[in-house]
Amino acid sequence: MNHNYFRTLLSFLLSIMLTGCSADEADKQDDSWWDQSKQAVNNMWDTSTQHIDTDAIKKKNEELFAKIWGEITPTLEEVLHLEGEHEALPNSAWILRDKEDNQEDIDELLDEAVSILSMSHSDQTRQEIRDIEAEIRAFKKTIAEYHQAKVTAPTSSAWVKTVQDYEDKIVALNKRIEQKNKKIIELKERFAQELAQKGLFISSEQLEVLLSSVVGDDIIQSSVVYDNVKQISQQLMELTISTGEDIEISQRYYGMYTVLLKTLIHMQKTFIGNIDTKYLPRIDKIAVEVQNLKKDTIYFLRRERDNNSHQHLKANLDAQKLTLQTATLYKRHLLGQRGKMVKAMEKTDSDLQIAQNTYKTVRLSGELVNLLRTSQKSFELLLNIQVPELLLFENKQMKQEFAILTKKLAQ
Fold first, then answer.
1. Residues 282 and 307 both lie in one domain
2. Which of 191, 285, 334, 356 stands 20 to 30 A from 301 (CA)?
3. How far apart are CA 266 and CA 105, in angstroms?
4. 273: domain range?
5. What is the mean pLDDT of residues 59-71?
6. Largest separation between any pair of C-alpha atoms in the chain
7. Higher pLDDT, 59 or 273
8. CB-based burial of residue 224 (10 Å sphere; 0-12 exposed, 13-18 middle, 19+ buried)?
9. Model pTM?
């Protein structure tokens, strides 16, 4: 890992996030401010890496890459084979294989490729966080049951649980929840470091948004895929160089590279499609339902004369307003991430067009190597695009409402 490179990149990204300016504007910041910011980030990076066993991490990463390489290469070659047959197939056929059948098989292989390229050590950390969050939810459910049981429990008894017994159980579970929350904080710190190793540098606040967003896992996945594709393209470049003047073999490697780019586009289209066809319609539907409920609540408020009922309705109205505000924030978040992915897909598609043109016309392996070498910068750009915007929740309740909407959107 090139720590100096990552330090510089992290400094640059944080300068953009903290000031809210564009990349061009960030370049124009005062030099003294820039030096101070960069030094602060370097200190953060040193602190986060000083206890890391770099040799062990390197070995684990090499083992994982070997596994990914072993699984992805047959898939890429099979896609190449099917694409080679595609033009010769009929547009449609009743019995024989046609282009539509072939494209379905290609799409399935691209899905498989995305799954392979998503392999990462951070997956285990993410799952640990999910498991502990599920335990906390179970503890809270049990606490609610204990509170309910207290209502009919005796104050003293030698045979059945008393009020004090239930209170003791509640205290014990609350302590366990506190311990679990501390463990989650540790896991999130580790998770952020693992993402940084993949080139995705985010603040703790941005990580919270990712983990609570319906598209968060997809954003994390795409960053992992970009990094793995970058490593594979590097390996293909080295293999191309090692073939010397063997054009047939080097073109085969380069053909695999074009399939890698198609895999990225396939993943990016899926991300955009999910936002367009699933999440945005659902958030709009929720907003319409809450708007209608809000109208009813206002109607009842105007008619209600009982002070107690009036207070309940007022609380309902406040909750509905909060949901609508959060839904608006959520929609803006989804549209923002969609825009980032569209930008990334446009970049990938441009690279693919050049790659395919080169693949069809190239005569010297050296030209292939030069283009593969250039592609490394493209993958770094894609990683930078993935940095999420920092959502500003007005209060804790809005943040909780954001998580509630995530569950609804994911159903």
1. yes
2. 285
3. 13
4. 202-410
5. 87
6. 91
7. 273
8. buried
9. 0.71
